């Protein structure tokens, strides 16, 4: 028998619930306690709490994660701290809470302690990092004056330095004013669009084209060094390399002109913005990602903006130390890593399971092995990380470097954490899951089928290949999905074997050999850890962390639910065969 | 199995008239191929399967393999003695040393000449004469801080010469050349220590970047001088200023003097075995301390790396470590810390390592001992030479150069990990600058003379603390839920609840950790009274609701079928939760002066925002589904014949549950708890994100902790491969692996036995 009777038990029809005694007449309090009914309720409370906790956590993450992309209205109000001159503030309301006065007073605010029990404390996102020390500011609700939502108030999302809030004064080309007053806004929208396109082109040029040249030059350097080490660097080889290098330099010259031109065009436009408290600031439009006026937007416009932001989140690269922009490299890295892991883990896990179930002599030894494999699934993930770092990275990777990459020495190629090692470590971590699931699937296949096949003259290998494995394939699939789900959510071992906060390039790109197994990758789970805990601006990063968490939860929930579905489906199928 | 290859098949046709020949060559060949394929598959699967299983077990052996060297002792390999020609005319050696690369040695003779030589061959290299005034002889020598390459010569005219040896590495013609040089950090002119010009029988020096303290002694008289150098910022000239320190006379003959590198303490070892300690800053006697019991005499004194500890060697082979310890009132006292033993005869020389808190001792019979102070470990004792020996240790502590009877000899030392012993890993250790022995984990520091504090005790304590608080929350909840789900819950509801719990199990811990650290921790800090009232009110509220429910008219009660109580409770618990958290602020105002955190701190309870309570809740969340699914399995598999029997005899469902079901399932529930515990112990991300990761030993629920797993995650990336620290982190991983493996195996065995029992019922 396998260990998972639990699930088998699901199938057996449940016996009727034991009827409770004495439900018809009312019990005295003492008898009520004696009957044990209250304790049944108490055990019931355990289930309720567990369910509430799970659903509550998921909804909290969903709400906080999804709300982030909604363009919130920007509130403008007069703010008067007692004993100070009133000033105007503008910002998005992020959070609001009731706080005992004493706590505010002990935080050093000039609060009149006797005024009542609580005060409202509101968190505003005020942006404008040029003028304020932080993006976010706690204000006391009672000290705010009347709140207005001026429709012409503008929000500018910038590539650096966070949001800017203010009124548009004019749009300029260099020092020449192009539009002013009411004409300024449409002009700005148009020019921001133009600059965004140019910026995109500029970035592509830098990243893809110039990146390829740099990569090529680096490969040439390594080639030269490799030939030098083998003492084969003769004049002919040197000339070849020089020619190639010259070609790269030539290509770079061509691109350089275009680069300079683009740079000039991108930096052409400016906008002058006046903040609510009267500062004027001239912003270069090349720094602007998008500008919008949330207070003037209709619900449809806001919805459009919302989905545009979600698109940016899923498909774009991070900005501002990962606290803004998208998480595409993290999604891509996670997928790449799990894919490679799945490719490694499936054949090996299945092979071990077939051996254990079909070929090994069933006895004390296989029982011990089975228990050991089961238990390995419960070993802390960090232990696998330590093993991966020590064995894969330093021992295996170090040897590979010495044997195949002497030209790169002392810079390590595979002797440093990277994609391949991360995948391998996760494979080792997930292989017990696959073994257990596959074995369970193999065990479920009725004996009659095997014996029928053997009786017809098929060899054992043929029976295995034609009868057993096809029937067990859904079980393998389940195991694989569970393994992928576990691997996708695991972070602790990855921190040691190849995941970084910001990887300069994707592990799969246009430079030969296209798939770079030695490269470090970004990962959704690590992204959550890093942005949430290592980021200099946690307040700004928080919504993004919620959104990332939501994405990760969705992926993993989906994987798990599909595994459950396949498993249940499978059981239905074999139940008929069993008898 | 079907052995096709050797079989010849015969078959008679069932109904047809034609005989089918199954043994045509083509069919035979095909059968052979099939048989071959079958065998190949068998081999392939067996080898492949075993290889995968072997690879998995490799983890354990690899971790053990990395950890192993930490517990091995030191080994030495003595080279052949060399007797270079020059050494015979040199006279007595006063000082020996080896430079960083182990190629150049230095020997100081009694005429004040430094002879440099090749360590391997003994061939002479250049020779530098130190500036000793006409007519004066060297009366004594003293060394600066270990690793500083500074030394002092005490002269017979009361003066002292302070010098420093440097080795310059150049690559003329691509050949590495090491040139020894001598510099004089406080001027080449001898410094007058004894104003009366008496010979300095003992001398000690401490060379700081701008301050030099020199102490000399003649008979029972001490004289000390402090030289301060000041650099003129404009001209770049340095001016030296001398200041004479007044010191009282010592009552006994002086044996050794030592000045600590901070130039605060002066240790004067005198008489048979006592030490007078002077406070140089205040210029007063700190105290007089007896160093040894019985008749033993002090024969050798040397500070350890960093100059805080003093190693005292005795005539009976005992070596003891002493340093100044401040008692709670702030008064410093020279205190005996720990002792070592090397043979039974007098210790002649104690040589500290220059990078670690280890040392080497030689006794008068030529017995060599390698020790480590913090780990309280004797790594090796071995006879290296006969008779008195003088030794010098290389900066990397891998070569010991010894001279005896005009013969030089190098001894290679392999001593990679002296810092670790069972006592330093698990016991209380008295570290330098600490008031008492303590459990401390502090693996790295900015300064080079740092004493690594590698006690796993605080980490293990933190691990168990986190697991304990998680289990306090998770165990009752999960077991209650499991019992209810398996025994009372309606099947329709069960089908809905189980996927939710499975989803709970699948949630990545990084999400729980981030939730705990970023949401829960600040929220709990702001709603502490509410959280505690929630813990208190939930059971009461549930009972109250159950009671009211039992009083409701039957029509209402019957509307909800049996086994749906949990669904009814969801709104109840939500209301209780909302109510208590809403009340939190009021409770805080009424009972805790509006700020519970300040209230707790005033009451002497330290409060961290990311504390054990937060970890307990988050990790409890992670552990609940693990315990739940196994416990539920155990309760659900209790044979129905038992429960029916009990019910038929008139027991209530609750009686049946407590007296029959739980008793039968208890081993299964126990194994569920063990698996939950194993999970809680190894959990990394939640602890990493939801605590401050400070390695403290305090069971306070409002303070954080650092666990073994989190420690590995934090420190592993910065750890140097192959270093002691690296291996200790591997040890932590190995401890985790073994612990969870044993827990899980035990749980699995219990479950297997339970299953057998059920099967027989």
TrEMBL record, chain A:
Residues 238-265 form a coiled coil. Residues 1-21 are annotated as: Disordered. GO terms for cellular component: plasma membrane. InterPro entries: MetI-like (IPR000515), MetI-like_sf (IPR035906), Phosphate_PstA (IPR005672). Residues 331-563 form the ABC transmembrane type-1 domain. This is Phosphate transport system permease protein PstA. One of its GO terms (biological process) is phosphate ion transmembrane transport. It comes from Pseudomonas matsuisoli. Keywords: Cell membrane, Coiled coil, Membrane, Transmembrane, Transmembrane helix, Transport. It is found in: Cell inner membrane; Cell membrane. Belongs to the binding-protein-dependent transport system permease family. CysTW subfamily. SUPFAM superfamilies: MetI-like. Its main location: membrane. PANTHER family: PHOSPHATE TRANSPORT SYSTEM PERMEASE PROTEIN PSTA, PHOSPHATE TRANSPORT SYSTEM PERMEASE PROTEIN PSTA-RELATED. GO terms for molecular function: phosphate transmembrane transporter activity. It is a multi-pass membrane protein.
TrEMBL record, chain B:
The chain crosses the membrane at residues 43-64, 466-488, 500-524, 530-552, 564-587, 612-636, 657-677, 726-747. This is Phosphate ABC transporter permease. It comes from the Bacteria. Keywords: Membrane, Transmembrane, Transmembrane helix, Transport. Its main location: membrane. It holds the Pfam family BPD_transp_1. It is a multi-pass membrane protein. GO terms for cellular component: plasma membrane. InterPro entries: MetI-like (IPR000515), MetI-like_sf (IPR035906), Quinoprotein_ADH-like_sf (IPR011047). It is found in: Cell membrane. One of its GO terms (biological process) is transmembrane transport.
């Amino acid at each position: 028998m396998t260990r998972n009777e639990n699930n088998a038990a699901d199938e057996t029809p449940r016996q009727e619930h034991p009827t409770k005694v004495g439900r018809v007449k009312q019990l005295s309090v003492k008898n009520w306690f004696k009957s044990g009914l209250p304790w049944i309720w108490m055990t019931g409370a355990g289930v309720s709490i567990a369910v509430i906790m799970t659903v509550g956590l998921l909804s909290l993450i969903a709400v906080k994660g999804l709300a982030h992309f909604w363009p919130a209205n920007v509130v403008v109000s007069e703010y008067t701290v007692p004993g100070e001159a009133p000033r105007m503030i503008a910002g998005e309301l992020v959070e609001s809470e009731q706080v005992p006065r004493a706590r505010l007073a002990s935080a050093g605010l000039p609060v009149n302690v006797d005024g009542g029990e609580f005060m409202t404390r509101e968190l505003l996102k005020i942006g404008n990092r040029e003028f304020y020390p932080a993006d976010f500011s706690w204000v006391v609700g009672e000290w705010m004056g009347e709140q207005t939502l001026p429709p012409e108030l503008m929000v500018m999302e910038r590539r650096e330095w966070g949001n800017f809030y203010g009124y548009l004064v004019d749009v300029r080309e260099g020092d020449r004013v192009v539009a002013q007053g009411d004409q300024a806004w449409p002009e700005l929208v148009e020019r921001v669009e133009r600059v965004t396109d140019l910026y995109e082109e500029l970035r592509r040029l830098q990243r893809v084209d110039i990146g390829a040249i740099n990569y090529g030059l680096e490969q040439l350097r390594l080639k030269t060094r490799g030939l030098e080490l083998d003492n084969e660097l003769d004049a002919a080889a040197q000339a070849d390399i020089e020619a190639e290098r010259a070609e790269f330099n030539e290509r770079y010259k061509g691109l350089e002109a275009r680069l300079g031109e683009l740079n000039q065009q991108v930096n052409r436009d400016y906008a002058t913005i006046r903040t609510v408290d009267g500062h004027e600031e001239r912003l270069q439009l090349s720094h602007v990602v998008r500008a919008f006026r949330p207070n003037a937007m209709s619900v449809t416009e806001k919805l459009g903006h919302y989905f545009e932001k979600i698109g940016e989140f899923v498909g774009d690269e991070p900005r501002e130390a990962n606290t803004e922009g998208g998480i595409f490299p993290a999604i891509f890295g996670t997928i790449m890593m799990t894919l490679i892991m799945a490719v490694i883990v499936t054949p090996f896990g299945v092979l071990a399971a077939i051996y254990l179930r079909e070929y090994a002599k069933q006895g004390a030894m296989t029982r011990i092995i089975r228990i050991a494999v089961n238990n390995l699934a419960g070993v802390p993930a960090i232990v696998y990380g330590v093993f991966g770092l020590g064995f894969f990275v330093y021992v295996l990777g170090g040897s590979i470097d010495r044997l195949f990459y002497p030209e790169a020495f002392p810079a390590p190629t595979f002797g440093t954490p990277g994609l391949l090692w991360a995948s391998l470590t996760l494979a080792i971590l997930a292989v017990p899951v696959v073994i257990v699931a596959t074995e369970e699937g193999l065990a479920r296949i009725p004996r009659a089928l095997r014996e029928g096949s053997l009786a017809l003259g098929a060899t054992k290998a043929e029976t295995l290949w034609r009868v057993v494995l096809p029937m067990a394939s859904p079980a393998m699939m389940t195991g694989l999905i569970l393994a992928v789900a576990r691997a996708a959510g695991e972070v602790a071992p990855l921190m040691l074997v190849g995941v970084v906060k910001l990887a300069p390039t994707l592990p799969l790109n246009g430079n030969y050999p296209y798939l770079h197994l030695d490269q470090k990758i970004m990962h959704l789970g690590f992204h959550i850890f890093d942005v949430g805990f290592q980021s200099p601006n946690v307040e700004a990063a928080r919504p993004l962390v919620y959104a990332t968490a939501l994405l990760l939860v969705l992926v993993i929930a989906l994987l798990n639910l599909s595994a459950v579905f396949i498993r249940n489906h499978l059981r239905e199928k074999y139940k008929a065969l069993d008898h | 199995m079907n052995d096709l290859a050797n079989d010849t098949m015969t078959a008679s046709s069932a109904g047809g008239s034609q005989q089918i020949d199954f043994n045509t060559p083509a069919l035979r060949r095909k059968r052979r191929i099939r048989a071959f394929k079958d065998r190949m598959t068998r081999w392939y699967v067996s080898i492949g399967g075993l290889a995968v299983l072997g690879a998995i077990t490799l983890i354990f052996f690899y971790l053990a393999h990395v950890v192993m060297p930490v517990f091995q002792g030191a080994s030495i390999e003595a080279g052949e003695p060399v007797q270079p020609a020059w050494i015979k005319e040199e006279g007595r050696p006063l000082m020996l040393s080896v430079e960083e690369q182990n190629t150049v040695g230095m020997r100081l003779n009694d005429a004040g000449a430094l002879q440099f030589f090749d360590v391997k061959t003994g061939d002479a290299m250049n020779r530098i004469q130190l500036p000793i005034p006409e007519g004066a002889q060297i009366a004594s020598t003293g060394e600066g801080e270990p690793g500083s390459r500074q030394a002092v010569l005490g002269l017979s005219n009361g003066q002292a010469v302070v010098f420093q040896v440097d080795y310059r590495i150049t690559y003329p013609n691509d050949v590495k050349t090491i040139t020894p040089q001598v510099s004089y950090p406080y001027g080449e002119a001898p410094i007058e220590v004894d104003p009366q010009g008496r010979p300095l029988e003992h001398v000690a020096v401490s060379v700081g970047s701008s301050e030099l303290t020199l102490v000399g002694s003649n008979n029972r008289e001490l004289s000390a001088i402090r030289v301060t150098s000041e650099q003129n910022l404009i001209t770049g000239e340095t001016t030296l200023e001398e200041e004479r320190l007044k010191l009282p006379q010592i009552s006994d003959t002086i044996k050794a003097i030592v000045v600590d590198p901070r130039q605060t303490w002066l240790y004067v070892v005198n008489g048979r075995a006592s030490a007078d300690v002077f406070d140089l800053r205040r210029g007063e006697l700190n105290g007089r301390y007896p160093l040894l019991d019985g008749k033993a005499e002090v024969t050798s004194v040397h500070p350890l790396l960093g100059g805080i500890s003093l190693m005292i060697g005795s005539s009976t082979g005992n070596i003891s470590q002493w340093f100044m310890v401040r008692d709670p009132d702030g008064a410093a006292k020279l205190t005996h810390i720990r002792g070592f033993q090397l043979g039974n005869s007098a210790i002649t020389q104690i040589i500290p390592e220059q990078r670690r808190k280890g040392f080497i001792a030689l006794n008068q019979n030529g017995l060599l001992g390698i020790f480590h102070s913090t780990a309280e470990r004797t790594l090796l004792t071995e006879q290296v030479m006969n008779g008195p020996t003088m030794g010098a240790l290389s900066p990397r502590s891998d070569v010991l150069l010894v001279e005896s009877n005009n013969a030089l000899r190098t001894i290679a030392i392999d001593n990679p990990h002296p810092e670790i012993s069972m006592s330093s890993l698990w016991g209380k250790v008295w570290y330098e600058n600490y008031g008492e022995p303590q459990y401390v984990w502090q693996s790295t520091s900015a300064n080079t003379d740092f004493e690594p504090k590698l006690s796993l005790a605080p980490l293990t304590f933190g691990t168990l603390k986190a697991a304990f608080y998680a289990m306090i929350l998770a165990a009752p909840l999960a077991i209650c839920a499991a019992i209810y789900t398996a025994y009372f819950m309606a099947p329709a509801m069960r089908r809905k609840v189980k996927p939710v719990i499975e989803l709970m199990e699948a949630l990545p811990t990084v999400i729980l950790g981030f939730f705990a650290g970023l949401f829960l921790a600040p929220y709990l800090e702001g709603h502490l009274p509410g959280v505690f009232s929630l813990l208190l009110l939930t059971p009461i509220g549930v009972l109250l609701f159950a009671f009211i429910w039992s009083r409701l008219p039957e029509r209402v009660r019957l509307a909800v079928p049996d086994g749906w109580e949990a669904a009814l409770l969801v709104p109840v618990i939500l209301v209780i939760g909302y109510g208590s958290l809403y009340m939190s602020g009021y409770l805080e105002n009424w009972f805790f002066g509006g700020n519970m955190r300040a209230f707790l701190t005033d009451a002497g309870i330290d409060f961290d925002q990311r504390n054990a309570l937060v970890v307990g809740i988050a990790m409890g969340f992670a552990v609940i589904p693990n315990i739940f699914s196994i416990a539920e399995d155990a309760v659900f598999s209790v044979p129905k014949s038992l429960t029916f029997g009990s019910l038929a005899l008139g027991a209530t469902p609750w009686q049946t549950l407590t007296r029959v079901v739980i008793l039968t399932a208890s081993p299964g529930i126990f194994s569920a708890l063990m698996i939950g515990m194993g999970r809680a112990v190894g959990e990394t991300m939640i602890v990493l994100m939801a605590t401050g990761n400070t390695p403290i030993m305090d069971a306070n629920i409002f303070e954080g902790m650092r666990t073994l797993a989190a420690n590995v995650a934090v420190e592993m990336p910065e750890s140097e491969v192959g270093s002691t620290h690296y291996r200790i982190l591997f040890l932590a991983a190995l401890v985790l692996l073994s612990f969870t493996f044993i827990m899980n195996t035990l749980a699995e065995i219990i479950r297997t036995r339970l299953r057998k029992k059920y099967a027989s019922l």
